[in-house]
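=== RUN LOG ===
request id: a7f3
mode: sequence -> structure
chains: 1
length: 431
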Amino acid sequence: MNILLINPPNCGRSIPEERYGIGSLKQIFRGEPLALEELAGNLPEHTVRILDLKADPDGLDSEMHGFHPDVVGITGVTCEANTMLELAAQVKETCRATVVVGGIHASNDPAFFNQIAVDYIVRGLGKKTFADLIALLEREEKTFLPAGVIRTRPGQLLDVQAMSNTASDLVMERPPAYHLVSQYRSHYILEKLGINMGFVASAYGCPHSCSFCSIRGQTGGGYLTKSIGAVIRDIEMLVDIPVIRLVDANTFGNVDRAKQLGRALKAAGFNKQYLADIRSDTVVRYPQMLQEWKEAGLRAVIIGFEEISDESLTAMNKKNEARINTEAIAILNDIGITIVGDFIISPDYDEKDFERLNGYLTENRIDLPMITVMTPLPGTPLYHELRHRVSNHNLDYYTLTNAVMPTRLDEKRFYTLYADVLADSHRNARL
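=== RESULT ===
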């Protein structure tokens, strides 16, 4: 079968830009579509193409007419969900291909895609499930669907079953089809340095349950790790790529395994640099492990500090403390690992809250602060808690840089202070 896998274009919208001319907060997504590369890697008996509309925004028409796909798979995050439906409709207007959607938003809010342009919804990781679905479609057997696949029924309620994934769903023996994005490779760069960057997954899901996080929908709340051999193999495939982004929600969720991976990377001698996600409490408990990873090539860690007060952290179910965050910053600075620090501002912020955050970022050396707005993403505990407050239901604005709930401050003032804090924190950013 001919299978076309589509990564949506950059399509999130920006309230501060549209209403107030503040363009510095607009979110642009970069990086290769690893989820699609993983899917393609498990379809060796089919002719598969990946169309990355972030790199080639006008490529859909030529690909559809030149390739004639039997199946079109579309992935995306929440702010891309509307565009995913638009792409599905365009596909249906062009040909009779079966349209399948997947990704984080499809996993957390499958009912959103219960539309006439979509034939099937795949929840969870999808690598095994999608291949199983393709096999059924090829044999024209549609009575019994693989677990995790939902047949759409526009106008009716979906039959949504509880979802979970296991290690078998990773299909570790089949690597990502990195070669299918070779024509786009020059677009996948570490923007501030202009260095080519490749994506590798070593773990899926997260052992924690922060209320705002949508990642639990990826594995049904589980935490799954690839074998160290598979991770080393995937990195080795990216021969000419000097920087590897481990795109796990938490690379260090299993500390014993993380220690083994760090040592394996050092032994492999790839002469590459790595970016990985870690919790601050893991840094504080295991500084020696971070030192070993530094020797293996760890250049930077991404840490979700989220907030600067214990009260706010507790409200997010973060299960961490502000003092731990501060201690982790000092440890990483001492080791010499760059810190990309994620912070979440609330629509309830007032002037003093912005001042406190600005002061914290001034006093603590965080090399590249990333500041987002608390956004109740559909399917998360936070959404169920706050959906009565949500005033903007257009998912195009769910980029994490828009307030989709009313702000305590005048809206323009809120975005002005947000932009000011971000600009101040980035003035001396290092990566």
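=== NOTES ===
The longest helix spans residues 411-426.
The domain at 188-426 is CATH 3.20.20.70 (TIM Barrel).
=== END ===
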